[in-house]
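ingest -> validate -> predict -> emit
validate: passed (alphabet ok, no gaps, 314 aa)
predict: started
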Amino acid sequence: MAIPLIQIKHLLFVLLLVAILSVVWLVLPTSAQPQIMPFKTFDPKASSWQQILSHSLPIKYLLVHAGDIQMDRNDLLQKGPKEWPDRFQSLPVLSHWAQHPVHGEILIDAAFSSHFKQNSGGNYSRFMRFFGELTGVKNSLSSDLASQLPNLGSDVKQVFITHFHPDHTSGLDDLALDIPVVANVKEYDLLARITNGDLFDRRSNWFGIDFSNAIEVPPFKQVVDIYGDGSIFAIATPGHTRGHTSYLINANQGAKLIVGDASHYGFGFTNGLAPAAIGKESARQAEDSLSQLISFNKMFPQVELVLGHELPSK
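emit:
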């Protein structure tokens, strides 16, 4: 049986990426392994989302559209079809601001920093600049992260990261260095250090969520309550990266599930096309995570899904 051209393309892309990463690791300096402090989480107090969603909190939410990426969207899918209408449409780069009634302002992902005003490479690492030039990916700034926040980022207490791809971390450079940054402990790996350059050297307040003892809240297999009050939940959605995490904001003005790149945009989600991943096991995990997200969406259509690189329809 002939192998479809799209599969050959993605195989070559993965092989090229692995080769580049190997060279980069040998010849370019990267961050040292950061010191990661444990982030205390709680078991959800209810065993079903129906119970959880019935006890929401007054949380304010703001979607921040910081920039755009111009690229072939099929490079973000495992099995993207050759032709579809929005294949080469630009991808918005997003961050999510929320204000908790007790814990104050938080961010989920940091989007692009103001450095992208200068050029397409912004504050990306040398590896990511090289990768962008090699693949023809172009980045542009719409409005940087800090300028869109109600208090210019000065009151942000914590930043939660879905995963350490630099279009989700770049804006950290616009925020105070002492703000705690929280991610799945599995995200602090070699790939994160290579793609983020010396980010982990510039900041020191790193925290890790340990999902090893997290409980199941169907259809999700590993869920933790961030503050123990049923307001914000971290959900393990691995595959696209080892420790990819989605977050549910249980706001009484409308719950939102921040999917991250467990599904980049609607075409992939609607058609059940899992995001790109490195290796067979990660690809399988990405498919499993997407399946859980699709099941949740069918069970609770009232919860707004905010995909990794798509603006909600008005």
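Confidence is low (pLDDT under 50) at residues 1-6.
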